From TrEMBL:
Cited InterPro entries: TerD (IPR003325)
Positions of the TerD domain: 51-145
Organism: Leucothrix arctica
This protein's name: TerD domain-containing protein
Top-level taxonomic group: Bacteria
Length: 348
């Protein structure tokens, strides 16, 4: 059930990501980020923060660890008054369509020309949201002055925002789907691959990727643990999922943020399969705008558990898919082969 917040109210944020939707007419809005030991900055896009029209996506797992507070403010021109009749701000957890929190200002004209609307902040390692709604008659300069900032180049929301509840893929599919058949057990079982501290070994396959964004950030997303599945609405703009009752795995790519993407190294791994790769009749269906639909099939007689499927690269609006068909004993060895530079935990 959606909870309506009132001025001064503070509540805990329990999900790892949130989508903030600001429904306003001719107003403008912005974001201030406060980091420990640093001056406040005006932010448009930062790691874990993504603006999209009248929405702000916040991915707490991807945020710079030094960020302590995120301030959302709105303002209008010096000669205008704020009219709150059309103002509503709603928070959605993750990619859900079910609103969790809502801020609705009183429906009357106000004399303030800028408002500190809400703040997200850390308290004892946990994120919370505070409904501030503090107005400034003097306008934006006064509000920014509290943070020792100057007036930014404004982001106007005069144009109607697209009618959608979450980011959509650009006019087509952005997915890599993997399916397979169950092979008969042979006398040889390949090496078990452990990824994640909570993983329980089963006879199965998983899909995942190494990612590198345009800003240089690298990381790993896969379908073993939900906490490491990535994010569709935020960094890394790719999310792994699986169907428990079917031999089906998927990587879904948010092509709306293609300008932030650099490359994905797509891989599959045999958690504990029976026999070699070819015996499982694996099909990996690549459906991504900008490249021809492609089905890739690992047909090796090897039993190495990691299969490098393909490299998917984005460059100035162009998309390129390069099949790899290489096999490795583990993810760190694949990382070393392609020079990705990930940090790996030492195991005994």
């Amino acid at each position: 059930m959606m909870q309506r917040l009132i001025s001064g109210q503070k509540v805990a944020l329990t999900d790892v990501s949130y989508r903030l939707q600001i429904d306003i007419s001719s107003w403008q809005w912005g974001v201030i980020v406060l980091k420990a030991g640093h001056s406040a900055i005006l932010s448009s896009d930062d790691l874990g923060l993504t603006r999209d029209g009248n929405q702000l996506m916040v991915d707490f797992q991807s945020l710079d660890s030094s960020i302590e507070r995120i301030v959302i403010f709105i303002h209008t021109n010096a000669s205008d008054e704020l009219n709150t009749e059309a103002l509503s701000t709603t928070l959605y957890p993750g990619s859900s369509d079910q609103a969790q929190f809502n801020i609705l200002l009183e429906q009357q004209s106000r004399s303030e020309r800028a408002l500190n609307l809400l703040e997200m902040y850390q308290h004892k390692g946990k994120w919370k949201v505070s409904c501030v709604c503090q107005g400034f008659v003097e306008g934006l300069d006064r509000l920014l002055g509290l943070y020792k900032l100057n007036r930014p180049v404004s982001h106007s929301l005069n144009k109607p925002a697209p009618q959608r509840t979450k980011p959509a893929v650009n006019n087509g599919k952005g997915s890599i789907e993997m399916s397979w058949d169950m092979a008969e057990e042979s006398q040889h079982s390949p090496q078990k691959l452990y990824v994640g501290s909570q993983f329980n070994v089963i006879s199965d396959f998983r899909i995942g990727c190494f990612y590198q964004l345009r800003n240089g950030q690298v990381g790993l997303a896969h379908s073993i643990e939900k906490s490491e599945s990535g994010s569709f609405i935020g960094v890394p703009y790719i999310e792994a999922s699986r169907e428990l009752d079917k031999h089906f795995e998927q990587l879904k790519i948010n092509l709306q943020y293609q300008h932030k993407l650099h490359r994905y190294l797509i891989f599959a791994f045999m958690v504990e399969g029976y026999g070699y790769w070819k015996a499982h009749n694996i099909k990996i269906n690549v459906q991504v705008d900008g490249v021809e639909p492609t089905i890739l099939t690992p047909d090796s007689l090897m039993v190495k558990p990691v299969h490098a499927v393909a490299m998917l690269e984005f460059d100035q609006g162009n998309t390129e898919l390069t099949p790899l068909n290489e096999y490795f004993e583990n993810l760190p060895s694949m990382d070393q082969a392609y020079g990705w530079g990930l940090q790996w935990r030492q195991t005994q």
